[in-house]
Amino acid sequence: MAKSRQDLFINGSIPRALLTLAFPIILANILQAGYQLTDAYWVGRVGADAIAAVAVSAPVTFLVIAMGSGLAMAGATLTAQYMGAGKQDMVNHVAAQSMLMVTITSVVLGALGYFLSPHLLGLLGVTPEVQEGALGYMRVSFIGVIFVFIYVMFQSLMRGVGQTRVPLFIVLATVILNFGLDPLFIFGYGPFKGHGVMGAAMATLVTQGIAACIGMIIFLRGRHGIKLKWSGFKPDFNYIKKAFFLGFPGSVELSTRGLGLIVMSFLVASFSTTTIASYGIGSNVLQVVMIPAMGLSMAVSTLVGQNIGAGNIQRASTITLLGTAYGFTALTLVGCIAYWLAPLIVAVFAPTDQAVIREGSQFIRTMCLAWGGIGVQLCVVSAFRASGNMLSAMIIAMVSQWMIQFPLAYVLAKHTTLGSAGIWWSFPVTNILVAIIALCWFARGSWKKTRITEEDIQTIKVTDGALTEEGYR
């Protein structure tokens, strides 16, 4: 079965291979969103202070997780390329070293976050009413960072070898478990004491811990494409150096995106409550729309990585272009539907507020017809990552957030008659421009020349190589 799947990825029908990989990833992403909605549902029943505690804590923990997520990108890229090259021993070696690295990184970042939590909340200007719940929630979240990192790496490595179904089943089980544990830890039951908003973080810690343990057991048994041995966890400093240089731009990319969202929130907060609510609703709708696009881009990444490892560079290029076409078409169609149904969509979140329905509909209708650009850039950037060109993906993210969207939103909103509508217009303009930039960069073909799995090179300085290739030196 595994061999037939591998043959499909390297030699078979590209549309079938994309769908085979993308469908379970999309379902897993939807379930992951359900995980977050479950927390929001139960925390919302504690009160406004509890909601605020989660709201101020989430961006901080997201940034910490983003700092270590580059290692997951590096691990997924290397396992995909080694899998495509048929080097199972290197697949196992990369997996063991990657798990070692994320464990150490998560312990360090989690400990720092735990002890710095009061200071971080002070910097955010949290009110005393929110402080207690936020501190408990944040500290428990930082304790659980190790499990989050381990499971994220497990998912990334499994995706790298083309196995997407097992992580789906694990996410399904943990979502169901989390739904039951949330009210127990938040409100308590019988002799079991509830812990308020901190209980939501405790439930997440338990479920993520179980998921991480299941992932490690699967790796140690070796039945799904990766087999770990305890001896494989002996540090290989040549590999660690290589993975660090490969993964660092990925961490910067995700951190940049996270900071960009925070800065945009500050800009939106300078307008009326109606604008803030409209932005929140539109952003939630956008996150839902991106779920299938992200699933497709992850499938593209796996297939491109494996085909580069197998030496099928032209097939990797075809996969990227086909995935891009699928992403553009699908998200454009979804955008057309959203344009038609915009008032109904906003009314789901704000059924009685006509001002929010009106402005929220304007936001959705302004950006939705350009959603196809999101599908384009996600698939192209995933191909860059899969080839080892993490720096290219990082630069595109930085250009998107800091050179196009935020400056454009600020100028249009604050220095034109558009007002809050200027923020809305920054979305479609950014999506179109970044899609064009990504396609032009892809057409240059420099990504095809990167080699990160050559065995005769002991340490590959990926960042320096990428800089030279892209003409920055």
Automatic annotation (TrEMBL):
CDD domains: MATE_like_12 (cd13142). The chain crosses the membrane at residues 49-73, 94-116, 136-154, 166-190, 196-220, 259-279, 285-304, 325-350, 362-384, 391-411, 423-443. GO terms for molecular function: antiporter activity; xenobiotic transmembrane transporter activity. GO terms for cellular component: plasma membrane. It is a multi-pass membrane protein. It is found in: Cell inner membrane. Keywords: Cell membrane, Membrane, Transmembrane, Transmembrane helix, Transport. PANTHER family: MULTIDRUG RESISTANCE PROTEIN NORM-RELATED (PTHR43549:SF2), MULTIDRUG RESISTANCE PROTEIN YPNP-RELATED (PTHR43549). This is MATE family efflux transporter. It comes from Pseudomonas marincola.
